[in-house]
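Thread: quick sanity check before group meeting

JM: Hey all, I'm pulling together slides for Thursday and realized we never actually wrote out the predicted structure for the chain we discussed last week. Dropping the sequence here so it's in one place. If anyone has concerns about the input, flag it before I start.
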Amino acid sequence: KVSKRVVKMILEKISTTCDRFNKNRSNLMILFSELCEAEAVDSNPVRDIKKKKLTKYLRDVLSDGERAIVNQYLKENYPSFHRFLHILFHSGARITELLRVKQDDLDLPNQRYNVIIKKGRNYKEVWKTIKDVALPYWESIISECSKGDFLFSKGLTPGQTEIKPYQITKRWYRLVKKKIGIEADFYSLKHLHTTEIVDILSEKEAAKHNEHTSTAMVVGIYDVNRDNRR
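JM (edit): ok, ran it. Output follows.
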């Protein structure tokens, strides 16, 4: 009995910004798609509700000076978070993917690790490269592992419990943004690393490293130096 009109009224009521409207719409779209699949409803009332137009703002990323400050501060005060940051930065993986990696997924002699990429409609298992520059951090954490451990459990050290991705961004907010006054969010590190790969190699190689099927995400979102480079 839920109509498009009712859904739109709800979205307008609960959404404080255009961006939040679109995210709420996306979540409801997924929910009603599942209900359609289960034949609980005949149609998806969210499908014909248009997204709201958004203003695309410049991405706030860390400067070279801020990167040095964050690196030194975490190294001295929060070594497990410092190690995680370096592993993630050079991995090309998303937080959710890295938090699922277990001791059994590593192949250090060949400098690679196994991960399930959960993007789009189909999931795929891939081997991802461990860079030379990041290898000491991987060797450090594997030396603390027992068989079957997640690499990053409670306290970002090996353990049997899988932690939630929000704990990483929450930790960044508490330890970096609040304590040393850094404005950029944790995920800006992925933008920085992708930009560096484009600078050194190409958009195509950056997309491949991030497991994107095309360069569209690199061009449109992650390459923060694209305009300056042009």
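AS: nice. The beta strands are 106-107, 112-118, 123-129. The chain has a mean pLDDT of 91.
JM: adding both to the slides.
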